[in-house]
Amino acid sequence: MEQLIPIGIFLFVLFLLLGSGVWVGLALMGVAYVGMEIFTSRPAGDAMITKIWSSSSSWTLTALPLFIWMGEILYRTRLSEDMFKGLSPWMARLPGGLVHTNIVGCTVFAAVSGSSAATLTTVGKMSIPELRRRHYPETMVIGTLAGAATLGLMIPPSLTLIVYGVTINESVTKLFMAGVLPGLVLALMFMGYVAVMSWTSKDFNPTPEPHMSFVEKLKNSRFLIPVICLIVVVIGSMYMGWATATEAAAFGVIGSLILAAAQGSLSWGTFSESLMGAVRTSAMIALILAGASFLSLSMGFTGIPRGLADLIASWELSKFQLIMALLVFYIILGCFLDGISSVVLTMAVVEPMIRAQGIDLIWFGIFIVVVVEMAQITPPIGFNLFVLQGMTGHEMNFIARAAIPMFLIMVVMVFVLIVFPELATWLPDNIRKGPGG
Amino acid sequence: MAAARTLRRILDTFYLIGGILASLFLIAILAIIVLQMLARWTGHVFPGATDYAGYCMAAASFFAFAYALNHGAHIRVSLLLTGLGRHRWWGELWCFGIGTAISTWFAWYAIRGNQISWRFKELSQGLDATPMWIPQLSMSIGTVMLAVAFWDHLVRLIFTGSHGITTDLVDQSQGE
Amino acid sequence: EKWDMPMAYAATNFHSEVGATFASCVTDGTGGELEIVTHPSGSLFGGAEIKRAVMTGQAMIGERLLSAHQNENALYGVDSIPFLVSSFDEHEKLWSIALPYVEKALEEDNLHYVYSVPWPPQGLYMNKELTDIEGMKGVKFRSYSAATAKMAELTGALPVQVEAAELSQALATGVAESFISSGATGYDRKVWEHLSHFYEVDAWLPRNAVFVNLDAWNDLSDEAKTVITDCGATAAAEGLQKSIDYTNFTLDELKKNGMSVERASDHLMGQLQEMGEVMTAEWLETAGDDGKAIVDAYKGE
Ligand code: NA
Ligand code: NA
């Protein structure tokens, strides 16, 4: 209990700096500095630089800017329009109609982009006008988009999983494989919800689609070919073991440049815009990671993580109780923090706890991603809500309410993961066993 | 006024150059990874490839810090600031004050850390055996640029009432 | 006073266990006057940062794989000259000769040496039987250091650069077909899923060394210095025994899981040692007079 005061100071400074609007990376540095000054006589600044240099020059981290760059290139090509043209004929006859293009489109785009916001803007820009024109209920359009775009985080490639893998020193490739099945299950759950709503809701009266013959549908599918090629190259190279996550990211950048060139949308302008956009975004994440690495050093010196882990261990929670406690903890955290920050901020404390409980760290990575996905759509701070606000002009609370069903589906998803842990662990355990395996 | 405009243009160009340098290092990461794959497929070794990629990663981040700040790409929680309404200036003053202090402190110790590597003749532990102070220059320069950017925006905030950062929302959230 | 002691390997690794015992030995021995708190798994500073952290007083004491720093001073790599020694006993003999020189080198880096513990000896993992060094020709061989890259060159193996974190994946996909490491690595990574043979060639035995910041050391009372030195001696002996026991355990596990585990034939061993002489000569070029004195003294005994 002697740690109550230090924890109190930490939390106070953290909330003061973060809450008052200081940039996240710098706020973390400030908190870490306060911790070092109070709890150890070691030179705070020198130790900070040792730690920050080694975390910033990490080779594993190089996959991050590359995947961001790939997303930036795709966002600036005609690829997104093509995807709607290719997908919509197949969705029109499903219960719920073209709302499914939101979900399927996000799922597909999630497989080439590591970012939820990139997924949301790309899919939303093409689908919202089309769906509105056909009089689909607005809450349905907005809600599914907000929810399904978060699949960008779970279906590989995933920035959150890269950051998680780097933080806990687990194989990013394994984490990526672990995300595939849960991502697809979550997408199916979203689609199931849409189907149910289309039957039960009396607001659901969209303009019916003109009939299209099978041949015509097939013909339209040619628009999907470029995306499918890119997915095959990026994901295939990883799963077949030809490339590491970093190398797959390099494949992705080159592949999307080739696609853009083939479409004629690669110009000096789009190239340099995509490059500079990627540089800005990765610098933003790098600053947060730098702050977080210093904070975790500071936490190590204070002994708080060890103390907290001891405290929670002394509660003798069962595995299930611990998971439930963490679920609540992360949902609360997710209201205020973005996903990557909440992962790096807490893993120093949480990792020993889950290791002590014998919880599989790959499985836990997927659990974290689902919870972080929820954070994307919970007010007051949820990136998808911000982006949708900018895109549709709706009030924040309208968008947040539209997204509540998606939030609940994700809570259900956590329990699905608890009951069927194999969803996350089967693929990484069983692919690439190799000869004699 | 003309002098102020010239200074403004010089500083913005300064941040932009940082961003361009960073983008060149991003391209270098891509090149190194491709070369390493080619080497592996043809039975050659690219000694120290992963170390070089790591240095480029650091350079691609540090050089772009100031540029990203100038474009409002660094994330922060602006809830309270928005809530302050017409008193927002005081909130911004607090944020830029803290930001300037921390970034200056960061730059100071980055240079010191760079000096330590130089004084102890620290060498990379990988196959490349690079003297560590060389790649660490990107950290020293990048953090100084960030500190300069913070001082710049703080001064502007105090004297003109606005920090001059415009935020592109989509840009800010691509990281998620 | 409280000293934080960063360590790079997991808490369950025998090096970390020995370190924890050492820490409580010092804490008890000084009556709590000097408390040492270990931080395993790189949870404070990671492996690559530990030496710098202790040199500059960011941590007062730490443990590090010494040969990782041989770029800075070839003497730190004296425990990793390929095929110079071929057993725990020979290795200990070499180390006792080299220690004064290593201590001096550490002192120049503002560090005081306390104790060190060898890793299990490095053996050769292969995907087929190997009776002659010719068999290495064209085999995809993991090169991760200057020494292993040189070995690939000398044997005609195809060097493939694979980081430790990606070893399992590289083996599973056939990117690498052979590598040098201890039996412990094979046990940890379940190498029997991918490769068939392990040859005990005892190529070298790298050491983890524990060192104290020199200024902090000089500020200690004589009593505290004695306690640390005594606890260090106990830890070194305990660690050596643990390393020997662990070697036997992991080799048994490799066998149990269907790998062929045997000592290399005399013919092959002779060829490897010939290669070792080339590499020892190269090491001597970088290690100067001190290096020559060590190797001469070792061979002269
Ligand atoms: Na994704
Ligand atoms: Na949220």
Automatic annotation (TrEMBL), chain A:
Protein name, UniProt field: TRAP transporter large permease protein
Membrane topology per record: Multi-pass membrane protein
GO cellular component: plasma membrane
Family to which the UniProt record says this protein belongs: Belongs to the TRAP transporter large permease family.
Major localization class: membrane
UniProt function note: Part of the tripartite ATP-independent periplasmic (TRAP) transport system.
One term of GO molecular function: transmembrane transporter activity
Intracellular or extracellular location(s): Cell inner membrane
Keywords: Cell inner membrane, Cell membrane, Membrane, Transmembrane, Transmembrane helix, Transport
Occurrences of domain TRAP C4-dicarboxylate transport system permease DctM subunit (ranges): 12-423
Record Pfam families: DctM
Subunit and interaction comment: The complex comprises the extracytoplasmic solute receptor protein and the two transmembrane proteins.
Transmembrane domains' residue ranges: 7-36, 56-75, 141-164, 176-196, 223-242, 248-271, 283-302, 322-349, 361-378, 398-420
Tree of life domain: Bacteria
TrEMBL record, chain B:
GO molecular function terms noted in the UniProt entry: transmembrane transporter activity
Keyword Cell membrane: yes
Membrane topology category: Multi-pass membrane protein
Protein keywords: Cell inner membrane, Cell membrane, Membrane, Transmembrane, Transmembrane helix, Transport
Organism: Salipiger thiooxidans
Phylogenetic lineage: Bacteria, Pseudomonadati, Pseudomonadota, Alphaproteobacteria, Rhodobacterales
GO BP annotations, alphabetical order: C4-dicarboxylate transport
Transmembrane segments annotated in the record for this chain: 14-40, 52-69, 89-111, 131-151
Subcellular localization: Cell inner membrane
Sequence ranges assigned to domain Tripartite ATP-independent periplasmic transporters DctQ component in this UniProt record: 29-158
GO cellular component: plasma membrane
Name of the molecule in the record: TRAP transporter small permease protein
Pfam families to which the protein is assigned, alphabetical: DctQ
The keyword Cell inner membrane is assigned to this record: yes
Function: Part of the tripartite ATP-independent periplasmic (TRAP) transport system.
Stated family: Belongs to the TRAP transporter small permease family.
Oligomer status and interactors: The complex comprises the extracytoplasmic solute receptor protein and the two transmembrane proteins.
